[in-house]
Design brief:
The complex is a heterodimer of chains A (270) and B (335). By secondary structure, chain A is mainly β. Chain A is built from 2 helices and 19 strands. With 335 residues, chain B is an all-alpha fold. The longest helix of chain B has 30 residues, at 52-81. The chains are: A mainly beta (270), B mainly alpha (335). Chains A and B meet through α1, α2 and β10 of A and α2 and α3 of B.
Amino acid sequence: MLLRNAWVGLAGITLALNLVACGGGGETSNKSAEPSSPSGTPAGQKVDTATAGDVKGVVNLDGVAPKNEAIKMNADPVCLREAKGAQMSEAYEVGDDGKTLGNVFVYVKDGLGNYVYDTPTETAKIDQKECRYHPHVFGMRVNQPLEIINSDPTLHNIHAMPKSNSEFNNGQPIQGMKMTHTFDKKEVMVPFKCDVHGWMNAYVGVLDHPYFAVTDKSGKFEIKSLPPGTYTLEAWHEKFGTQTASVTLGPKESKDVTFSFKPSGPTATN
Amino acid sequence: MHRFAKLLAAATVVLILAGSLVTSHDAGLSVPDWPTSYGWNMFTFPPSMWVANILYEHGHRLIASSVGFLTIIMAAWLWLAEPRRWLRWFGVAALGAVVAQGILGGITVLFFLPAAVSTAHAGLAEIFFCMTVAIALFTSPGWVASDAGAVDDARLRRIATAATALVYSQIIVGAAMRHTGAGLAIPDFPLMFGHVVPDHWSPAIAVHFAHRMGALVVTCAILMAFAYLRAHHRTRRELMRPATLLLALVAVQVTLGAFTVLSQRNPWINSFHVVGGALVLTTSLVLTLRSWRVRFASAQSSQREQSTQTQSTQSVPVSAASAVSAVSAPRGART
């Protein structure tokens, strides 16, 4: 009996001690990447850069954007020290004149047909610095390596919450830690968040072609080397949602497209 | 032993608060690995790294470990010193529940908080809390002393049991609402989108609406239980005290629920609402168990009689008293 009691006690202690716990790209660019040269190995039609044109444009704000919310970083003294001055959320990147919108992801949604593109070997990058993600909105390609860096002397976890790709959540407790991840499906957009610092969020558009750009604060974007054709462009904003525009491009032609987001709903013209 | 059981139950309240703070702060994935914490052993994870939301999640893990440790002691103590066999095994079951709860917590982290697993984690937490309170009750002097004069009222048993079952169901609906992000699916209170009944629907609105309706049902059930007790057992202190407390807790709980919505899910109000739900449940459980006290006694008597008969058929010349002693106090503990 004594032996049985001792065994039960030991087993219980071992189990509970082991188990009882629960839970328990580069900086924002307003220019698209150049399409690959047609000398690659993949089969299929490649873009003829000699006849390709450009789409330029601007994303306007028709109205007054809500104010970005103030962020209190005092839950982490390191963030408080690293991020100097008043800290605001990054939801509305509005131009100095109040009429243009930054951090809008603009991309060719439809019309590219069967072109094929080489997968870039250079890495896209996202950095956790001053308790923010840099960049806040960016684009990258399917199967392109994404380097995730923690430049802060504090812990971060990077938690990607895609719908089509695989979700991941990795801790980077030490300053200078790096990891690489690739997305194997196109998806616009994949949100990132840091569950440690609730204000940290970012978005990446993952595409199977190089025709995308992110607007700068002046709302400008440029998508280069687009072959002749008729395309549907989409502009995505984290708060205002999406809007689309159609554009037809002739050989070596350059077209302007203007998107206009209203705080109550978007419109597009070209 | 009773004091230790009360300590375990109190520690479990703290654990439930810690767990609800994790969800309220959206901190469930702030420590992405399990059972390690950012690669460290949970117990050696440097306190300097318990920053921002990590404090809630890691704190929850440490408190859970402490409760687990207390449960081991409780189960071992019961096993070694408790004369009632069923209670000894009940202690083992509580240990099993807390271990399963830890595993569920780990799974929900590793699989990015799937709503079903997180809801199960919340549901098992309540069951475990009920078990700790039940152990405290079963080991209390009032329960152990004598079953003579215990209330034997079948209707009371039905009312109290139904109330407890309804409270538990309401908690599960609340947990499902919480873990599917439907806490503010209906943003106003007491009206719903300015109407008595929502004028449009979605799964989130439906689960939120169910929780509000559940609150109404639970309140009625508890009012009914209280009214019944006042009418039929007004002098029974052991029943009227938990019933009165239950009434007060429900009033506080409904208020906290309202303020959870009105404050846009303030994390602390939201968390105290979760704890309030657990306290309503266990108070209702105490009332229910006391209404069943006489049946527990009958079961024990049957067990004793069975034991006596067994010993008689073995032709061992022992008296009934010594047979009871053999069953009830084999290790010299009190009966």
